[in-house]
Amino acid sequence: MLSVISEGLELALDPTALLAGAIGVLLGMFFGALPGLTSTMGVALLIPLTFTLDPIVALSAILGLYVSGVYAGSLTATLIGTPGTAAAAATLLEGPHMRDKGETRKALSMTTIASFIGGLFSCIVLILVAPQLAKIALSFGPPEYFALGFFGLSIVAGISSDQLLKGIIAALIGLWISTIGLDPNTGIPRMTFESNNLLNGIELVPALVGLFAISEVLLRLEKIMNSKSNKIRINKTGVRLNELTANTFNFLRSSAIGTFIGIIPATGSGIASFIAYNESKRFSKKPEKYGTGHLPGLVATETANNAVTGGALVPLLTLGIPGDVITAVILGALMMQGLTPGPELFTKHSDIISGLFITLVIVNLFLLILGLLAIRLFPYLLKIKEGILMPMIISLCVIGSYAINNSTFDVIVTLVFGLLGYVLIKGGFPLAPLLLALILAPIIEKNFRNAMVLSKGGLSIFFTRPISLIFILITFAVFASIIYKGIKNRDQKQVEC
Q: Which of 296, 267, 298, 252 is nearest to 91 (CA)?
């Protein structure tokens, strides 16, 4: 055992591997921060350059880009209200509010530290209990996936603040939009209006960029035209030690949530961050502060989305099952290096696996160091005149949307969703529930219908399987709590009147 660890250390601490990891982290910041240029795209572009490299050197660069890409999307989400990736969507609930309060440096510092803690936690889990957790993930079938998605929808209440009705309406709009495209079971076109471009449905990233980036630009332009544009203050105060210690349990809870969600295939960072945010709010003594630039809310989202990175590697390495699109790309990179994921990988290439585990820890350390250095420069983006910054954002959005599929239709989707986001914001509707519905709807619909096929139309399948039953009971408990609070608030208002 000690010899395997020693061999892994020797491979991971090779100067070439360390340099590759640092370069990967820097590239991840670039691809993650720019709207539309996802870490998946970055890894896909990087793989051809790693063919001739030693396995650990190649994996150092790829894992560095993977980890950093998930993290970096939160930087632009906080600074300009535009999430670089879908994983950073939940950051919009707190990050921009902290920016508006002049706490930009604190928000970015906490984002970096929380991402490091979440990533490191998932590394430890990956190292210690990967095979056992992979077996749990294998027990997830259509009923469990549906129950998880159904539970996710209950988060709408937590992210709608005091606008529950409008949050539900926004979520319903998202559910409706998600039905566009081919039926997942029958392959029959739905609401495509005979357009081939809509057969694959609405791509999440162009919709995300439009909802939050284009709409933000339109709102900024409106303020400029009305001479109401406020100059944002940049406070140089970072995160204090007591703020870190006060969030200890929040770090642990959110890391566990992110790692667990990452282990389950076909979920992802977006779902993990929303669930962690909701749980943080539910356990908080001051839930009314969430959505106003509250630091614990940011801690939850940023810890959870980076904890997914290590969790997603559990089924990939132990069973050869990629948890999401980017781990599917990493699977290809492993096989091109002659490494076939599965139980034999841990026996035949134990030195490589040991080196990979250590490498993952190292790239998370690089993320912390380089991230803390980078955030000293990022806030100064806010000092760029809006007449220059807004066209730059629009250009990046258009380029990023086009680059996903090399399709002008995705650019149109971005612009349409930008207008939709602008109209909803002006009407007082929160955008987060709509985005959450877009993420969860495919999981809910496909797995509900597959479960119905398995049970021959009986609903009992959701209540006779333990994991599914637990998720459903928790969901009903959340809904009951919402109804109880609603009745209690109504009675209090009647008494006051």
A: 298
Q: Comparing C-alpha atoms, which of 246, 247, 256, 248 is closest to residue 276?
A: 256
Average pLDDT (478-497) is 68
pLDDT tens track for 286-311: 888 888 888 999 999 999 988 988 88
Instruction: Report yes or no: 112 and 298 within 8 Å, Cβ to Cβ.
Output: no
DSSP 9-20: HHHHT-HHHHHH
Nearest to 304 by CA among 266, 254, 360, 253: 254
Q: Give the single-character DSSP code of 264.
A: S
Does the pTM surpass 0.90? The reply is no
d(CA 82, CA 397): 9
Report the C-alpha gap between 84 and 68 in whole angstroms. 12
| Residue 387 CA, distance from chain mean position | 30
CA-to-CA distance for 95 and 79, rounded, in angstroms? 8
Tokens 């790829």 belong to which residue? Answer: 62
| Residues forming beta bridges with residue 190, ordered by sequence position | 181
Distance CA 422, CA 418 (A): 6
DSSP states of 432-488? HHHHHHHHHHHHHHHHHHHHHHHHTT-GGGGTSSHHHHHHHHHHHHHHHHHHHHHHH
Q: Which pair of structure tokens corresponds to residue 337?
A: 């290096």
3-class DSSP string for 379-402: HHHHHCCHHHHHHHHHHHHHHHHH
d(CA 364, CA 173): 38
**Residue among 323, 333, 293, 11 nearest 137 (CA):** 323
